[in-house]
Every structure is written in C-alpha cells, then in structure tokens.
Amino acid sequence: DGGITQSPKYLFRKEGQNVTLSCEQNLNHDAMYWYRQDPGQGLRLIYYSQIVNDFQKGDIAEGYSVSREKKESFPLTVTSAQKNPTAFYLCASSIVWGRETQYFGPGTRLLVL
Amino acid sequence: AQTVTQSQPEMSVQEAETVTLSCTYDTSESDYYLFWYKQPPSRQMILVIRQEAYKQQNATENRFSVNFQKAAKSFSLKISDSQLGDAAMYFCAYRSAEGGSEKLVFGKGTKLTVNP
Q1: By the CB < 8 Å criterion, does A75 face chain B?
Q2: Burial class of residue B43 (count of CB atoms within 10 Å of its CB; 0-12, 13-18, 19+)
Q3: Highest mean pLDDT: which of A28-32, A109-113, B75-79, B104-108?
Q4: Average model confidence (pLDDT) for chain B?
Q5: Which residues of chain A have a CB within 8 Å of the CB of B46?
Q6: Which of A42, A99, A102 sits opposite B97 (nearest CB)?
Q7: Chain B residues with CB inside 8 Å of A97's CB?
C-alpha cells in the first residue's frame, strides 16, 4: 500500500538525550515536511525538504535537525537543545513543493521522562 | 504573515443533521489554497476538502462542502447528514500559491461532537 509511515508511535526521551523520529513514504513525493502539534494548537512547521540533500528551516527549527539522503526518507532528530520537546510530531509529503496538497503520516508522540 | 482563525473551539451536532464550521483567514495575496483537515482520535491528519482561490465554484466532496467567500476571507465547512464517524478535530489551513510558499498555516481547530 502507498502511504507515509512514522515510527515509533510513542517515544520517550531522557534529559540530555537526542532522539530520532522516522518518516518514510513510498508515494514518490518530492517534498517532505515535519510539523509539531501542541495541545489546543494547530500544526507548526519545523523543517521541510524539496529535494534530496536539501532542506530548509521552518518556523520552529531551533533544537531540531533533519537529513534527506534518500527521496523516501526524512528523519527528524530532537536534540538536547530542544527544551520543551513533549508534543505530537507529524510528517507530511507532497508531489512537488508549493502547489500540491500535503498528505500526513500517523504521527509520533514524544514524551520526556 | 498569513493567519487562520477558527472561532468555534467546540461544536456539536445530532446524527443525520447538518453542521457548519467557521474559518476566517488574513492574507494580502490573491492566489492561494485553502484546506480542511480532519483529525480523529487516532490523530492522523486526513484531508477533507481543498479549495483553490482562483476558482469561484465552491468545492464539494460527498457530504462535505465549503462556502468560500474570497472578499470576506471566509472559508466555512458544511457537513451534511452527520455521522458518528465525523466526530473529530477539524483544522482549517492556508497555503500560499506564490514562490517560497512551503508551509501550511493552520487554525487552532474545532472539536466536533456527533450525538446519536
């Protein structure tokens, strides 16, 4: 089946630890995105990538890092510099960057121990 | 910067009835896209409907339709014949069609409850 997968579904982070959230898509989409959702809020853009080996910061990139070594994969690392990482993280993709509809994965819930 | 406002934090509807969710937005651009996404308890964001600003005709998708008023910057969602499975958070989102427009701008959402 075509779609976007995110893993793990739940992730626990200890203080000072870096953790990586996985996002994979088999839709042959060029563009991929990471959003963060806090309770009672809409989504906010963390990073996005239009093509392989290229990515740009969104509105709230501080404390996060990404890579785009393959078209299908866009992992997000939550670093120790992110002081309030507890949130729901959603990955999205679209056919091309700019005009196309974004489709979302099932999300990862990150909790701090 | 563009903003999206959903003024109804919560709404409820009886099963089989019709409900309208409100959304207003602020932009100085003339070409853009508007979306309604549904987020059920599973928390996956599901596209409900999409509207291109250059199209005067309101988008429809089965029981879902929009009332797009470009001059008023209003984009409401009407759900007809409401079903229990329609219960979810609904988010209105804006996306510019101009160069450099990489992100969706979301409202804070409306929680829809469907009563049997």
Answers
A1: no
A2: middle
A3: B75-79
A4: 93
A5: 104
A6: A99
A7: 102
Q: Give DSSP secondary structure letters for chain B.
A: --EEE---SEEEEETTS-EEE--EEE-S-SSEEEEEEEE-TT---EEEEEEETT--SPPEETTEEEEEETTTTEEEEEE-S--GGG-EEEEEEEEE-STT----EE---EEEEEE-
Comparing C-alpha atoms, which of A92, B29, B58, B40 is closest to residue B49? B58
As beta bridge partners, residue A73 has A24, A70
- What is the distance between the alpha carbons of residues A95 and A28, in angstroms, rounded to a whole number? 7
Q: Token pair of A63, please?
A: 């404390």
Question: Phi, psi at residue B85, to the nearest 5°?
Answer: -70, -10
